Amino acid sequence: KGAGLCPVRGHSNVQGNRTMGIDEKPAKAFLEALGNHFNFEPPRAAGHNTVEALNAMLRDEVKVLIALGGNLAAAAPDSPRTEEAMSRCGLTVHISTKLNRSHLVPGH
């Protein structure tokens, strides 16, 4: 009682991904620890968040979409625009445990 808000981030294990360091802009300390532990130099360039990735797809700057679970076409706030962005990719790969709407939006 009186605990306040408790955001439940459950879609496609979003919280678990973040806990394990999956982020479009990982912290410098995380990258250094990762590189030291596995003896390699991880890429330092930031990636795209969802909105940035969709915009890049629409500008034809992203050619390949690899989706690990989830249902991007239905989860993004503007499904028609998301489907248009996905369809502009030359290749779309979905790694999922069950079929979903995104699988119906192939690249060209």
TrEMBL record:
Transmembrane segments: none annotated. This is CbbBc protein. It comes from Enterobacter agglomerans (Erwinia herbicola). InterPro entries: Prok_molybdopt-oxidoreductase. GO terms for cellular component: membrane.
